[in-house]
């Protein structure tokens, strides 16, 4: 296998478009050595490699919580953010989104290959520092390949700086790439420190990289590896579930908890303001909420009752009663994650049907679904230009859920897997006299029933955290859930339940892989278009 770098066009960009902060010692520098010469330069390229692709707070197309707009969880109201068109299926090989995402990944992959190949150049007093920074860069490169193969399947695969000839080569099959990068990622993880960093905590350590390996092993059906990585993270003792689910997504605990495994904090985004209130929050009086991403009825209706049952399987109330009042006998994670008509915000009752209210559902900056995410929307930011919240790119709860799912899929659902589910449900505040999965009523569950349970548990625990689209793709259920209209709040009209309708959606079988944009095919002649585009 060739192990060089990405096609030459992006390799050239990698060298010529390095941000001005790199050129800090000499504004007339003309060679790589002149601006890549000390330990601080190594730190800076690591920092920029996070910022530009993974944690840029103003770049809505790549923000993790905006990713739910591609799925049945949420609606993204601005077409240019790319999530809306992918969710409603109005896409083809000329859709700008696919050029944007592919070029973004490939350009920065080229930069990473250049930095990694030259990591021995900068002077450092302690070689362990070089090893750490180089390993973090290598981990970021792995992350890029995980994302690329998840979206496009076969892609160009090189791990060294490029030549012009490399641009002519066909892409490498997905499984061949994964067979290389999974063991490579484990090797990289062993070089990283075991403990959390006291500063620059967004950088990978040994266990946060293992958690990322776990996520993509699960995504790719490598369940033994996913379970093993999850167990190693659990046994590290570095992480635990925070006592209050809701506080994790507010200032009360966002920057002070042991649950965030991969961090998106102030240091990882240039210490600039975060914009989660603006992106997710309501337009309240003179506030800055723009409702760019809002939850859908599809998500609201999947929240358990307090007894851990689906709303159409709970004998306490009718399904219609639950649909009309989402807070009725509901899993407390609902109120911690979502707010809508009749709820309180900033001391005022939300009324989405009052035309004189800024939250009126037909207003441009209001929610067309009548719901908003409460996650990452702290009222402290209601009248501020920005915030300083920390965010989780991967939480310990996902580790527990991943272990349980992997063991279910291996038909080896052990006591630890059941404990993982129970720990999450108990922390959520469910009635464990009924919701405890070790109770006799669960003894007769088939594998299909356990699969349905863990998928729903994952959906509500991680709602608004950017994993739902990947889940419906890997579970191959997008054809079902994205061929439904996007609906919102439900109320009675003339005695009949009526839900707000936002848009029709569609998903074709070939949409499980994204197309290469026509421009990418012209620039990189070795690329092969995915089927039916």
TrEMBL record:
Chief place where the protein resides: membrane
InterPro entries tied to this protein: SusD_RagB_dom, TPR-like_helical_dom_sf
Family: Belongs to the SusD family.
Domain RagB/SusD: 263-533
The keyword Signal is annotated on this UniProt entry: yes
Cleaved signal peptide residues: 1-20
Name this polypeptide is given: Membrane protein
PROSITE patterns: PROKAR_LIPOPROTEIN
Organism: Parapedobacter pyrenivorans
Top-level lineage group: Bacteria
Keyword terms, alphabetized: Cell outer membrane, Membrane, Signal
GO cellular component assignments: cell outer membrane
Location in or out of the cell: Cell outer membrane
């Amino acid at each position: 296998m060739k192990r060089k770098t990405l096609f030459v066009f992006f390799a050239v960009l990698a060298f010529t478009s390095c941000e001005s902060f790199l050129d800090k010692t000499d504004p007339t520098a003309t060679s790589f050595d002149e601006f890549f010469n000390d330990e601080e330069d190594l730190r800076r390229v690591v920092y920029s490699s996070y910022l530009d692709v993974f944690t840029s707070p103003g770049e809505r197309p790549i923000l993790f919580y905006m990713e739910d707009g591609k799925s049945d969880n949420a609606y993204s109201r601005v077409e240019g953010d790319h999530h809306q068109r992918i969710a409603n299926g109005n896409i083809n090989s000329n859709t700008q989104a696919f050029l944007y995402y592919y070029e973004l990944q490939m350009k920065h992959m080229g930069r990473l290959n250049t930095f990694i190949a030259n990591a021995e150049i900068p002077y450092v007093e302690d070689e362990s520092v070089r090893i750490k920074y180089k390993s973090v860069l290598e981990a970021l490169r792995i992350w890029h390949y995980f994302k690329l193969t998840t979206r496009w399947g076969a892609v160009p695969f090189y791990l060294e700086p490029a030549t012009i000839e490399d641009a002519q080569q066909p892409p490498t099959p997905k499984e061949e790439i994964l067979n290389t990068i999974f063991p490579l990622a484990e090797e990289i993880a062993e070089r990283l420190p075991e403990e959390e960093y006291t500063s620059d905590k967004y950088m990978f350590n040994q266990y946060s990289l293992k958690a990322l390996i776990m996520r993509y092993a699960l995504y790719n059906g490598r369940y033994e590896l996913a379970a093993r990585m999850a167990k190693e993270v659990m046994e590290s003792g570095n992480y635990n579930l925070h006592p209050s689910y809701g506080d994790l997504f507010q200032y009360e605990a966002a920057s002070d908890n042991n649950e965030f495994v991969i961090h998106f904090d102030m240091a990882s985004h240039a210490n600039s303001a975060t914009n989660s209130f603006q992106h997710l929050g309501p337009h309240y009086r003179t506030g800055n909420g723009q409702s760019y991403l809002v939850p859908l009825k599809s998500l609201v209706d999947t929240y358990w009752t307090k007894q851990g049952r689906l709303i159409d399987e709970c004998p306490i109330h009718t399904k219609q009663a639950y649909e009309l009042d989402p807070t009725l006998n509901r899993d407390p994670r609902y109120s911690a994650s979502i707010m809508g008509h009749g709820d309180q915000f900033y001391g005022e009752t939300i009324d989405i049907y009052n035309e004189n209210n800024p939250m009126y559902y037909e207003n441009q900056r209001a929610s067309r679904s009548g719901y908003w995410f409460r996650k990452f929307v702290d009222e402290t930011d209601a009248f501020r230009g920005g915030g300083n919240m920390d965010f989780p790119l991967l939480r310990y709860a996902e580790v527990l859920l991943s272990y349980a799912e992997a063991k279910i899929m291996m038909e080896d659902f052990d006591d630890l897997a059941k404990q993982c589910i129970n720990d999450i449900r108990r922390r959520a505040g469910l009635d464990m006299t009924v919701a405890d999965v070790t109770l006799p009523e669960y003894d007769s569950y088939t594998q299909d029933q356990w699969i349905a349970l863990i998928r729903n548990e994952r959906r509500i625990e991680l709602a608004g955290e950017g994993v739902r689209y990947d889940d419906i793709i890997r579970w191959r259920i997008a054809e079902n859930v994205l061929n439904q209209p996007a609906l919102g709040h439900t109320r009675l009209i003339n005695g009949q339940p009526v839900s707000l309708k936002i848009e029709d959606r569609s998903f074709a079988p070939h949409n499980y892989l994204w197309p290469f944009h026509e421009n990418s095919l012209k620039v990189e002649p070795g690329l092969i278009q995915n089927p039916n585009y």
